[in-house]
Design brief:
With about 375 residues, the protein is of the alpha/beta class. It is built from twelve helices and eleven strands. The strands form two sheets. The chain has a six-stranded mixed sheet with strand order 7-6-8-5-9-11, with helices on one face. Strands 2-1-3-10-4 form a five-stranded mixed sheet. Helix 1 (about 1-35) packs across helix 12 (about 335-365) and helix 11 runs antiparallel to helix 12 (about 335-365). The longest helix has about 35 residues, at about 270-305. It is globular and about 65 Å long. Mean pLDDT is about 90; it is low at about 1-25 and about 25-35.
């Protein structure tokens, strides 16, 4: 996964550069179009799941808001709010659905309690890399499938960020194989958390801003969030020493911008195009920033005493088996999950066969 991430992130970074050029040229045309018509002043609020301190993931929301303002000549503005300023970080979907805010920036898998298939909108264990996830969402119909789920909540979703392959979390004590997971209290959300529960972990779900205190005070024994840069920002290395990899539950997680469907339908066509373009830019920009920041952050963590440790093969094997069983169980119980999983699985088989030839072969040699 690490090798695939390195290649995948490079391709996305190139795509971001090309996309930026296209966006700049489009900006001129859009501004000319907007100046030639009379459009209303629109003011929205955006609730997010992130604290201000996580400047890269919260920065995804900022990118959207800034670009919407710039591309509309100031006529369309969105004010972002950190987790807890309007609603708690794990209640963004509820706020957007109710119309308490017009839009939000969050992770779909936070809401898999409402529908387990929401996990595909972010990431599932042993799933897609960031590049593959973008391909599935943008080109293979993935986002259309996700939006069919959101339609039951009166919400529309846009990919709006990706962290790239994540780390496997901070542990207060070193693991000694599969049995050492029994009874361990760990912060880990969504299907990754359900898999860990199957392996004997006492799973906790906490928003980013609450993780450090819980880990430091011993309320939990381990926690994962994203990767070196954000984990350093949260101070997790001060509360736990052992930093595990890979983050097999999130190989390429997408963040999403949610918009209330009724409010969206009333938005002028020009503003819809601007918002969609801003989300696309945020999606590419966030991944590029993380790949730029995580390497140096990892070196700082190592100098501070963090010990980077791989998960043992028995843990990875057990986690993968439990993941496959979980997918099977959900497919039997939930038709939405079954439909998305079947389409997603077919895409994964094909893209993996291709990436095994074009990317993995190169990475195996180049990064060995």
């Amino acid at each position: 996964m690490q090798r695939r991430k390195l290649l995948g992130s490079g391709a996305v970074a190139l795509g971001a550069a090309v996309g930026a050029s296209v966006l700049n040229s489009c900006t001129i045309r859009r501004q000319e179009s907007i100046s030639s018509v009379s459009l209303p002043n629109v003011r929205w609020r955006m609730a997010t799941s992130w604290p201000h301190s996580l400047d890269t993931i919260y920065g995804g929301a900022l990118t959207i808001c800034q670009r919407v303002y710039e591309l509309s000549g100031g006529r369309f503005s969105i004010k972002p709010y950190a987790a807890g300023e309007i609603v708690p970080g794990l209640e963004v979907l509820d706020a957007v659905q109710a119309g308490s805010v017009e839009c939000g920036h969050t992770a779909s898998y936070y809401y898999d309690g409402k529908n387990p298939a929401f996990a595909f909108g972010t990431s599932v264990p042993f799933g897609l890399t960031a590049q593959q996830q973008n391909s599935w969402l943008y080109e293979a119909g993935g986002n259309d499938l996700i939006n069919r789920l959101y339609s039951d909540f009166g919400v529309i979703s846009f990919p709006a960020g990706n962290t790239g392959a994540q780390m496997g979390g901070w542990f207060k004590r070193q693991l000694d194989g599969l049995n050492s997971l029994q009874g361990l209290k760990m912060r880990i959300p969504s299907l990754g958390g359900k898999v860990m529960a199957e392996l004997g972990v006492n799973v906790q779900v906490l928003p980013g801003g609450e993780i450090y205190l819980a880990l430091d005070r011993g309320v939990i024994d381990a926690a994962e969030f994203t990767g070196p840069y954000d984990d350093e920002k949260l101070g997790l290395f001060r509360a736990a020493q052992f930093y595990y990899y890979p983050g097999w539950w999130e190989p390429g997680p997408t963040l999403s911008s949610l918009v209330n469907q009724k409010i969206w339908t009333k938005l002028p066509k020009e503003y819809k195009e601007i918002f969609t373009t801003a989300c696309f830019e945020a999606n590419l920009t966030m991944l590029s920033r993380y790949d730029n920041l995580n390497g140096s952050a990892l070196q700082r963590l190592l100098k501070s005493g963090a010990k980077v440790v791989p998960y043992s093969i028995d843990i990875l094997d057990a986690a993968q088996d439990a993941s496959l069983q979980l997918f099977s169980d959900f497919s039997v119980k939930d038709q939405d999950f079954k439909k998305i999983f079947y389409q997603w699985q077919q895409f994964r088989k094909e893209v993996s066969a291709w990436n095994r030839i074009n990317e993995f072969s190169f990475a195996s040699f180049s990064y060995s």
